[in-house]
Specification:
Elements: H1 31-47, E1 54-57, E2 62-63, E3 72-73, E4 77-81, E5 91-92, E6 103-107, H2 113-127, E7 131-135, E8 146-152, E9 155-159, E10 163-166, E11 171-176, E12 179-183, H3 194-250
Parallel strand pairs: 2-5, 6-7
Antiparallel strand pairs: 1-4, 2-3, 4-6, 7-8, 8-9, 10-11, 11-12
């Protein structure tokens, strides 16, 4: 935590009379950035949907010091393990017993890089963030699109590798195109959103239907070919029999 660390006592929202702004009009993002944020938030929400003690936040203010309304940041996506899984206008650390985000994602760009690896990173270190991930969907300054940091001795230190294991989330992370994807550890099994799962199910069903239609067509074609062959053989046999009969009739009587 930063200076003036809050008490571990939980203060419920209805007991906190201070008015903390929960929006500003200056934040904009590209459609690629929005889609990347949406995917991360949706996948993690669905992954931990049965947990009442994990809050997955996105694009809302985190206030870390009661009474200091200017002491706030708005991570693109953040994970608070041990916090209540409820909807909220903003996240106030003192209302959750001093629990600050442990995992933070920033969908970064060339214009925000110095803030993301400078000011924000310093604040996240002060919060005690354990894992910090930067994803650059347009590859504007991160050539591979993905940077990871983990906390060591109070500082967020960089990790190398195309695929990173998140100990806090229990998942592997890897940049794929303009999205940051999650996987079961050591597996190629990608975590899908509900919408992606439904689409995959429909596509799989369509593929099965197409394969069954092809199989039935092949069987029908084979049966038709066998029937045509049998009909041809029967015709040849009949013609041979007729020819033999005709020859017998044409033979002179002895």
């Amino acid at each position: 935590m930063v200076a003036g660390e809050v008490s571990r006592m939980i203060i419920h929202p209805e007991e906190d009379s201070d008015d903390y702004p929960y929006y500003e009009d200056t934040v904009t993002e590209s459609s690629w950035h929005y889609k990347a944020i949406e995917l991360i938030h949706t996948v993690l929400q669905e992954r931990f949907s049965d947990r009442e003690d994990i809050f997955i936040g996105a694009n809302n203010f985190v206030y870390w010091q009661k009474g200091s309304k200017n002491q706030k940041l708005s991570p693109d996506v953040y994970v608070c393990l041990g916090a209540r899984n409820i909807d909220r206008r903003s996240y106030k650390v003192w209302e959750e017993g001093g629990i600050a985000p442990q995992v933070v994602f920033e969908i970064t760009s060339k214009s925000s890089q110095f803030t993301d690896i400078g000011t924000k990173k310093a604040v996240y270190e002060a919060w005690g963030v354990e894992e910090y991930y930067l994803f650059d969907p347009l590859r504007e300054y991160i050539p591979k699109g993905f940077k990871a940091f983990v906390q060591k001795r109070g500082l967020l230190q960089p990790l190398s590798g195309k695929r990173i294991f998140s100990a806090r989330l229990g998942l592997d992370l890897r940049a794929e195109g303009r999205l940051l994807r999650f996987f079961q550890p050591g597996s190629s099994q990608r975590l899908l959103t509900y919408r992606e799962s439904q689409l995959a199910r429909v596509e799989a069903e369509a593929a099965r239907t197409e394969a069954e239609a092809a199989r039935q067509f092949e069987q029908s074609a084979r049966r038709a070919a066998e029937a045509a062959k049998q009909e041809s053989e029967d015709l040849v046999a009949r013609l041979r029999a007729e020819l033999a009969q005709l020859r017998r009739e044409m033979e002179p009587e002895s």
